[in-house]
Amino acid sequence: MNVEKRLQEIAEKLSKRIDTLSCFACGTCVAACPISRETGAENYHPRRFVRATLEGEARRLLEAPELWLCTSCHACLEHCPQKVPVSELILELHNLACSLGIAPKAIAAEVENIVASGWALAPSESVNKRREQLGLPSIPLKSRGSKDLAKIARATELNKRLKKIKERQEAEAAEAGGET
Q1: CATH assignment of 3-99, given 3.40.1710, 3.30.390, 1.10.1060, 3.60.160?
Q2: What phi, psi does 116 have (nearest 5°)?
Q3: Mean pLDDT across 135-146
Q4: CA nearest neighbour of 17 among 74, 83, 72
Q5: Residues sharing a CB contact under 8 Å with residue 57, sequence separation 6 or more, in sequence order
Q6: What one-character DSSP code corresponds to residue 101?
Q7: Residue 92 reports pLDDT greater than 70
Q8: How far is Cα 72 from Cα 106, in angstroms, rounded to an integer?
């Protein structure tokens, strides 16, 4: 895969949806973003993703940990006076990063859990005990629909992406172990 070409395609797609000068850096997306509020705008700034993509500098974002902080709440899009699709852009960057084997361990593990069991985080016995105390029905602890999810994962090549992510993480771990 030609990463630079794919980044160019993403930038062109973004440019077709918005005039490249639409983002007039008002900061509304930053003010609306719960992650920016929680971590501080100096640490997480949705507007930077737009600017870097349009200026052809998005490559560095693919390995940036802050790329994965987005909760996909779409507050940036909802509040933007120009309707710049920042959250959609971040999703495109997530997809590209995953296709390159780049993703945090926690996210890869969560996706594997979903494919294997239908649960991102399976309910625990203690959750069901609390539900019982509240008079609520228990949540089945067994997997739910994993055959269908596995089929979807194969059809969308999610399994290949997960394998690539694991291989990259193992290589990074081996490299880090070799340095000590």
Answers
A1: 1.10.1060
A2: -75, -40
A3: 76
A4: 83
A5: none
A6: T
A7: yes
A8: 17
